[in-house]
Amino acid sequence: MAVQRFFDEMYSDAASRQVRPHYDHFDQWLREQPSELIAAKRAESDLIFRRVGITFAVYGEEAGTERLIPFDIIPRIIPAAEWKTMEAGLRQRVTALNMFLHDIYHEQKIIKAGVIPPEQILRNGQFRAEMQGIDVPQQIYAHIAGVDVVRAGAGEYYVLEDNLRVPSGVSYMLEDRKMMMRLFPELFAKHRIAPVAHYPDMLLENLRSCAPQGISDPTVVVMTPGMYNSAYFEHAFLAQQMGVELVEGQDLFVDKGYVFMRTTRGPQRVDVIYRRVDDDFLDPLAFRPDSSLGVPGLLSVYRAGNVTLANAIGTGVADDKSTYCFVPDMIKFYLDEDPIISNVPTYQCRKESDLSYVLANLKDLVVKEIHNAGGYGMLVGPASTTAEIEDFRAKIKANPGNYIAQPTLALSACPTFVEAGIAPRHIDLRPFVLSGKNVSMCPGGLTRVALREGSLVVNSSQGGGTKDTWVLES
C-alpha cells in the first residue's frame, strides 16, 4: 500500500478511517445517507447553480465558453482554535501590506533601510508612479484582499500568495453556503457553524467607511468591465447583495473634479468605486489610451481626493509574486513582529544562485510567472512531461526575472465526491480580508479543490471546483 504523503483534513488515519474530532458529526451523518439520496442532491445542486447562472467564463477557449464550477457537498471544516490563529495571521499580514503600499508611494522607508531592493519596487511592472504622494483615505490601499492559504506537511498553514488587485471568488463562498443550507438543513442543526451571509453588509460598511473626507452618506457603486468578463456573475451578485448600482465605465463621467453616474433622474455623484477593472483600463487619459472600459479623467479626481477606489491604483506591486518573498520582512519592519503564518520557501529566478538551482531542479518545483494568475503561466514539475519542462526552461532562461519557483507542496486533501466515489482531492483556502476603520473578515473563505486525481492546481479556470468552508464556533 502506498504511503500517504499529505495531510488529510477529515481523517487522522485514512487507512483505518480514523476521523478527526471536528468531523465526527459530519462523518456519522454521511455514513447514514443512502447513496441514491446523495446522488440526487448533487444533481439538484448542479441544476440550481446553472439556473442561477453561477458559471465561470474561460479565457482562451471558444468565444462565450462558460463552465459550471463544480460544487462538492463534503465541506472543509476548520476548528475554532485553528481559525483564530489563521485570522490573527491574516490580519497581521494585510495590515503590513497596506503599510507597505502607503510607504512605497510616500517616504519609501523600507527601500531606504535596505530591506527591499529599489529595483524590486521601482522597476516593477505594477508600480504606478502616478500614485506617488497621493493620500488615500485612512491609508488603506487593499480594501479587499484574497489571501491564498494552503496546508502542507504535518498540517502547518502557509500563505501561498496575496491577491490585492481585484480578488474574486467571494460570491462562490456565499452561494456554496446557501446551497448546503438548502440541500442539508439538518447538518446545520448538528454543528455550530459561523455564518457568512453577512459578508455583503460587511463589504458595504467597509467601503462606506473609506469614503472621501467629509462625506457622511457616500454613494457606492461596483464597476465592472462588462458581461464578458470571467467574474461578471460576481460583480452583479455583489452589487445586488449590497443594494448598490452595477456600472460600466460608460455609465460614469467626470465633471468639475468629481465623478458622476448617469441615472434616469439625472447625474448622481459617486463617492466610492469598488472597481473590478484592472489599473491599465481605468482611465484612458492616464493609462491605456485605447481603453473603452474606463472613465476619462478618473485619475485626476482620485488624486484630488474626491473619489475612493477600492482597491487603490498601484496595489499590484504588493501582490506581485516576486514581492511576496519580502512580506515576512515587511511584517518585521512595519510591525516589529514575526509572521504568524509563514510563506512558502521561494526562489527568485532573477537571482543567479536561485536561477541555477531552479534550472537544475525543474522536475521537482512549481514555477510561476510573477504577474500571472488563475493557474496560467505556471509549471508543476512533477506533473509535467520532459518536453513541457524543457519548453519552460527556455522561457525562464529568456527572462529569468519573470519567474519565481517554490517546492512542490503536498497540499492537504479533503474527501471529495468524484466519479469513482469518495476520494481525497487537494485543496486550498482563500479567506477574504476587509480593511477600513478595522480589519475584518468572514469566518472561513472559499475552499477550492483540484478535482483531477493528484492535481495540485485548484483554480476554476483549470478545472477546479469549490466546497463550503465551515468554521466551527466551538
TrEMBL record:
<dbReference type="InterPro" id="IPR025841">
    <property type="entry name" value="CP_ATPgrasp_2"/>
</dbReference>
<dbReference type="InterPro" id="IPR016450">
    <property type="entry name" value="UCP005522"/>
</dbReference>
<dbReference type="InterPro" id="IPR051680">
    <property type="entry name" value="ATP-dep_Glu-Cys_Ligase-2"/>
</dbReference>
<feature type="domain" description="Circularly permuted ATP-grasp type 2">
    <location>
        <begin position="75"/>
        <end position="450"/>
    </location>
</feature>
<protein>
    <submittedName>
        <fullName>Circularly permuted type 2 ATP-grasp protein</fullName>
    </submittedName>
</protein>
<dbReference type="Pfam" id="PF14403">
    <property type="entry name" value="CP_ATPgrasp_2"/>
</dbReference>
